[in-house]
Amino acid sequence: MNAAVQGTALITGASSGIGATYAEKLSARGYDVILVARDEARLRALADRITAATGRSAETLRADLIDRAELAAVERRLAEDAAITLLVNNAGMALEGGLLGSQPGAIERLIALNVTAPTLLASAAGKAFVARGRGGIINIASVLALAPEAFDGVYSGSKAHLLNLSLSLAAQVEDRGVRVQAVLPGATRTEIWERAGKDVNAFPPEMVMEVSDLVEASLVGFERGETVTIPPLADEAQWTAMNQARLAMGPGLSRREVAARYLGPAQASAA
């Protein structure tokens, strides 16, 4: 498809790993790209490779999304640039020590990057896309959103936030020309492990997905219109059953009466 149809994709955390691979694969699909990250040299090298390989425009936009002023500049770009049709919210970090082993500043930085930044960018993009009647938002969450006991709860909680954000936003914009997808990777071979002081090779090899495979599967899910894509999950029925069970609880989650199992002795005898 040509750029007049695809438009421009803005990708955060685009200097390496999942973000860089999204940029490469989206440009091959006909998107121009805006690459957002802190490492200007890496961004320029990637932009040059993309343009040479695909002929697509590849712009670099250096920004530290933890810095509120620099984040605001990216928000403005999403709000004002009518060529942008896709946001890939990929930038993120993990902690070295978890909740009990990390300093407050490290926890604050994770929340700023994993929660505040993608939320504000999704808000800016969502408003702009709804006004234009066209667009897509891809939020990179994690399977840990579904398995908080398996890893640090600050990181998994930030990814659960992105899953909830995606489900809610998708329901709001599904009839307004805008698509929203949450991608839930499992362990993936990226630099995030080294930055968090962990060794991805400590996992059994069969548990670790290569970045190219993850992103290709995620884009297939997006092109199929999935709201939640879990590339490593072989049995889709497991996710479907879990989601249906969650929805089935809905009518009973807010009631005037206390559930019978919580009645005290006086209440039970009066019932």
The parts where pLDDT drops under 50 for at least 5 residues are none
Number of domains: 1
So what's the overall shape? globular
Count of separate DSSP helical elements: 11
Distance separating the two termini = 66 Å
Keywords: Oxidoreductase
Pfam family, one: adh_short
Protein name: SDR family oxidoreductase
Family: Belongs to the short-chain dehydrogenases/reductases (SDR) family.
Molecular structure report:
Strands 3-2-1-4-5-6-7 form a seven-stranded parallel sheet, with helices on both faces. The protein has a single domain (3-270), classed as Rossmann fold (3-Layer(aba) Sandwich). The longest helix has 29 residues, at 104-132. 50% of the residues lie in helices and 13% in strands. It has 271 residues and is α/β, with parallel strands linked by helices. It has helices at 3-6, 17-28, 40-54, 68-80, 98-101, 104-132, 153-173, 192-195, 211-223, 236-249, 265-270; strands at residues 8-12, 32-37, 58-62, 84-89, 135-140, 178-183, 228-229. Helix 2 packs parallel to helix 3 (40-54) and helix 2 (17-28) crosses helix 9. The radius of gyration is 20 Å and the shape is globular. The protein contains eleven helices and seven strands. Strand 5, helix 7 (153-173) and strand 6 form a beta-alpha-beta unit. The protein starts with a helix and ends with a helix. The mean pLDDT is 93.
